[in-house]
Amino acid sequence: xxxxxxxxxxxxxxxxxxxxxxxxxxxxxxxxxxxxxxxxxxxxxxxxxxxxxxxxxxxxxxxxxxxxxxxxxxxxxxxxxxxxxxxxxxxxxxxxxxxxxxxxxxxxxxxxxxxxxxxxxxxxxxxxxxxxxxxxxxxxxxxxxxxxxxxxxxxxxxxxxxxxxxxxxxxxxxxxxxxxxxxxxxxxxxxxxxxxxxxxxxxxxxxxxxxxxxxxxxxxxxxxxxxxxxxxxxxxxxxxxxxxxxxxxxxxxxxxxxxxxxxxxxxxxxxxxxxxxxxxxxxxxxxxxxxxxxxxxxxxxxxxxxxxxxxxxxxxxxxxxxxxxxxxxxxxxxxxxxxxxxxxxxxxxxxxxxxxxxxxxxxxxxxxxxxxxxxxxxxxxxxxxxxxxxxxxxxxxxxxxxxxxxxxxxxxxxxxxxxxxxxxxxxxxxxxxxxxxxxxxxxxxxxxxxxxxxxxxxxxxxxxxxxxxxxxxxxxxxxxxxxxxxxxxxxxxxxxxxxxxxxxxxxxxxxxxxxxxxxxxxxxxxxxxxxxxxxxxxxxxxxxxxxxxxxxx
Length: 553
Known about the structure:
CATH architecture of the domain at 216-366: 2-Layer Sandwich
Largest sheet: 6 strands, mixed
Oligomer: single chain
Structural class: alpha+beta
Shape: globular
Number of strands: 15
CATH class of the domain at 216-366: Alpha Beta
CATH topology of the domain at 216-366: Alpha-Beta Plaits
Number of helices: 16
Distance between the termini: 60 Å
């Protein structure tokens, strides 16, 4: 007889679901829906079916698992893996949950798979395979769109009601309507509290309108500089976690179900703990910098090893530097806890885990969904470069950052953006391209023994500092970047003239700049900016976005 039933649920394309709207309140509503789905809503469903959760800790005993007990080896925002006895209550849950998700979070794509077996580990393996297969299977959405269906002008979905905001009426689809309802904190608890350190109150903005002047804490606090409303869309993701989990399953093949569940639960909860504590550490700095009013951040996703948020441009680099550093430290603490459960479980993972970040700086009135897709692509691009740089397949992938400042067009793909916006031709026939971007920077701990050196992000601050200390005007570099797009040969003449002007009182200033370019970027001198890949665009963006920003340890 099949004793156990294993269920796994996973929300798919959650960033797409959240970024479907350009309105901040709807993005916030979507993130609250997702968080509540596998917390408060799941708890209420289990209670209605008289099912009781027990913890997968050192006291777990599957032999004493009653017919109404359930255990979660994994339970995080938008995802859960559940083990229970194969009985009527379990069958009722299987029938109820998909229907409830469609009602509670309409428009959300998800996968839900179940498997029954005498043993738990084989069932978990099978259900994971079923879940992966489902991700490639399109599902019908309701209400069905027909030629005569009235559509929402903002999303294109079938309109179900008319809502009024700022004295303007607009047709909305069902997902948007529900996202707006989720602003009611009586129904939905404030799930953003997990970003906050202890004893801090929610000061996250809920209105994202740069055209309206307001001192209210509801409004996103853009820069006080007139016309400045640049924000950073940030997506960060743990490195190699998927592969580590696959190896984890292989390594623990011989252990019993109890040990397996304890180890898997400890790892899953550990990732949540590490990411949450890292976010809180970065938030502590941001709160100290902004003791009053709305905070210049809007958290959207904090789950497992995923982080997505919107930050004011001048805060973004420092915030993510602190978050990544804290994640590396906290992940080691959490991974070391596995040793008490099973030594093989700890041996799967490196000394600590790392995180890759993609950032897109853009104006707040540009399309959020395109900005997010580009940030996600930059994150993937940075991961690829990080994987190529590590010493061996088992070595630590360094924590890296890729970023762009989009002042005009947005692309969905990082490679396309770099090729189109950050690459210039150095020859008349266009056979050779010079990238005005380093593409990837080291954001976390320095990793020894890399196949390829990755430039530390602090190198950009070093470039800004050496120009400031020697009174070298950075506006020249902006002119040079523009010139290189049109005539690289003229760029060489511009550099020669600039060096001549700045050497009238000695060559120390140019020598200092050349030293930084050589030490960090492998460029012999300033002239190499027209003949070799270089960080010219990164430097201009960094200096402008941070207004000389702070990047101190």
